[in-house]
Amino acid sequence: MMYIKRVVRLVFVFLVVTFFTFWLLDQGKSDLLAAKAGLNATPENVAQIKTELGLDGSFVSRYLEWLGNALTFDFGDSIVTNGFSSWELIRESLPKTLELMVLAEIIAITIAVPLAIASARRPGSWIDKWSSSGAFGLLALPSFVLGIYLSFVFGVKLGWFPTIVDDLPGLNDDPFDNLRQMLLPSVTLGLNLVAVYLRLLRSDLIETLQEDYVMLAQARGLSERRIMWRHVLRPSSLNFTTAVGLNVAGLVGGAFIVEVLFGINGMGRLVIQRVVLQDFEVVAAVVALLTVAYVTLNFLVDILYSILDPRIRHGAR
Amino acid sequence: MIHRRSRRVAAVLISGALVAAACGGDDGDEPEAESTPTEVEAEPEATDADEPATSDEPETGGDDPPPSTAAPLEDADQITSEGEGSDDASLEPVPGGEITWGLTNDGTGFDTTGAVAPGSIRIISALNDSLAGLDIEGNWVPNLAQSIEPNDDYTVWTITTRPGVVFHDGEPVDGPAVAANLNAFKASPTAGFSFAPVTSITAVDDSTVEIVMSSPWAQFPQSLVSQAGWMVSPSTIGTNDTFIGTGPFMLESWTPGDGARIVKNPNYWRADEGLPYLDAVNFKFLPDQTVRRQAFDAGDLQGYLSPGDEDIVDFLEDDDVDVWIGTAGANEYLWLLNTTAPPFDDIRVRRAMAHAIDKQFIIDNFRSGLTTPANGPWNPSSKFYSENDYPQFDPAAAQALVDEYEAEVGPIEFELSIEPNPSVIEVAEVMMSFLADVGIEGSLKEIGQGQSAITALQDDYQAFSWFQFGAPDPDREYTFFHSSGGLLNWSNLVSADIDAGFDKGRVNVDEDIRREGYAQVLKALGDEVPMLWVDHLNGVEAVVTIPELHGIGVSLTLPDGSPALAMTDGAFFAWTGAWIEQ
């Protein structure tokens, strides 16, 4: 029942967001029609093209039609890049951004979790101080500055990695070349997340370590490692999990800068580019997909909560 | 006054700081030194109000023909000269290899009957050969066509196709194919304006096309040098997602927003000359200047267009980089003024604006001194260039005109339409600060990228930040100034002198008579000021390459054996002859 209510709420959010997106799209329709009609367009031409594009009828009926088509990934054709559908443009960009996000999260989690545990075990120790300072340093460093410096050092000066992602092979086709090209952008994006994850997890771990059941486990002689990994980490991960869930969708926006810096034809760059080009059909499609991704991820995070801490599930009953 | 000048200084300092930050720690060179406070603050005072600086004037001005090649230049002093010539001639071209080339603009497709975006044109330049080409003096000559012949009064032109030439899909480039392409161009709602005098295009037989005009058009083949002369396989006319042309390379893939890959055309009609040399070119769209520079420095790009003025200065001092400056056809930067709408329907306001703006300040501080002041649509290196009386920087004269207008009509306010390009907006804001100094208040109105042409054609503007013109032959600018140009007569000015001058240039073949006609046009443009000219961009529309890449910007021979004009329009360089050391 709890899940059904949440699904209903998510559908509502999706409808509200897509409705307003479609409304914004509609505001730009006169320009789009003019572009389609050409430079000598008469009112008759415009009316004809309006019919051809299925733009007749009420706003609500057109929205419902668009929504129905969107369910089959038919988001209409790009106005600027004739000959391509919105979905074709997205399909080209989506895998690169997904890979970038996953790699960035892996890098961030791989660095943040061990550092948070080490810091929480010995608060105030040298590793705690250094990791906190380093994390704040990374947090203060904008990704465009970090990206330029990483690219300059490891691309231009050392020549270890390419400075641009070009003709990216699939992970299955050539994993080595794929990862070689994606490493610098993923590190750029991932390092910014380390600070947030590290600080959240560290403080929750310290709090959990002060719980009675942890002291009991220590009194029973369980090893520190076992206590930390088996009994402390999971209940301390709620805020951390929330942050990871929120960041996955938020990374699309953050990915824009990294995608520009490394020449990646990803979703972030696509959406900004299409906003500038006033290619609203594509923008509406991207917003709809991001909304679905965002609400779905948050739904999954909610489910994960109850797995991480059964009290949440029981409390809901 | 002080406040406005401070704004200009601040703009220059911020610009310099951003560039310095972007290039920080790069290689120890200091291009940002151009923007030191001392130099910047001294500059406005040092600029002569009535005399544009002449030290940077091209050596090839006046009646001299443009040079035959765009050459790699050794230092900034040679930027507008012919250069030293290329070392390519001493090297034997080697076939094979592929390169990655940085694109500044993304392509929006390959529909040759529509408005083709600059990013697309860059790629098309390697996929296509035009019916006509340009020799080193900018005169048209048959290229893909075997011959282009007029009748006695230039009202009928006959194009004969070259035997044996095929499109990338194997279809013949014959009379019906050429006629189909030209008819589609003529019918285009966006491009067809320039074919206004054409009344019919007919394939007479398999190898001949007859074009009939409503009035004499002696320079008609000039229009076949560019878009109208691009031939695509008839089944793909009007198709946007592919380009099946006749050029040295074939389109293998195109990903909007990312780039394109082109591969050698084994059936190229000049294959018996060993052309083209390269196996493939990867075009990579990189909108950010710092990223292009970094990728080039890392060896991930072998060349790119439009490095930006600061980088050009930097590269010119670097022996490991070749810089190719276009010697013909570069754009002008200007503002269109809508002469049918207030306040620019009053010539006093237009002239006041021209007097108010210090072009040399912009050139010195935003172009690193690489460009030259403009007084019209043609570069001083054009054989059709002449001086005119375009108002020079004179704030006192501007103020007097403004005072006179304001006493009669009221305050002068206007909106400048502009695409969202930060570096262009920066220059526009500085120009506005000059105008504000004399009491003309402007504001910016950003429009969507790629919407300029449509917005201008709908006359939905007062002033418009604009890049255009500079074609090697002025006849190609006819529609944009002539009263018969309709919507394409950008500033809507109707001038008997301009019409008569352009008609004289169009109808006659005698160069002296044509020159007279275009001098008449330039004089009228200087007097009427329908456009606010800033600078000729041939100094900054440049290409940089690694030294191992040869043949870019070098004149290739035309089919008749004569050398072609290199780097025309700032985009068309000789991909056919490009080769890389293995």
From TrEMBL, chain A:
This is Putative oligopeptide ABC transporter permease protein. The chain crosses the membrane at residues 7-25, 100-118, 138-162, 182-201, 238-262, 282-308. Its main location: membrane. Pfam families: BPD_transp_1, BPD_transp_1_N. Belongs to the binding-protein-dependent transport system permease family. Gene3D superfamilies: MetI-like. It is found in: Cell membrane. One of its GO terms (cellular component) is plasma membrane. It comes from Ilumatobacter coccineus (strain NBRC 103263 / KCTC 29153 / YM16-304). Coiled coil: none annotated. CDD domains: TM_PBP2. Keywords: Cell membrane, Membrane, Transmembrane, Transmembrane helix, Transport. PROSITE patterns: ABC_TM1. It is a multi-pass membrane protein. GO terms for biological process: transmembrane transport. The keyword Membrane applies. It comes from the Bacteria. Residues 94-301 form the ABC transmembrane type-1 domain. The keyword Protein biosynthesis does not apply.
TrEMBL record, chain B:
Residues 40-62 have a biased composition (Acidic residues). Keywords: Signal, Transport. Transmembrane segments: none annotated. It comes from the Bacteria. Gene3D superfamilies: Dipeptide-binding Protein, Domain 3, Periplasmic binding protein-like II. Residues 140-482 form the Solute-binding protein family domain. GO terms for biological process: peptide transport. The keyword Signal applies. Residues 22-106 are annotated as: Disordered. One of its GO terms (molecular function) is peptide transmembrane transporter activity. Residues 1-22 form the signal peptide. InterPro entries: SBP_5, SBP_5_dom. Belongs to the bacterial solute-binding protein 5 family. This is Putative oligopeptide ABC transporter oligopeptide-binding protein. It comes from Ilumatobacter coccineus (strain NBRC 103263 / KCTC 29153 / YM16-304). The lineage of its organism: Bacteria, Bacillati, Actinomycetota, Acidimicrobiia, Acidimicrobiales.
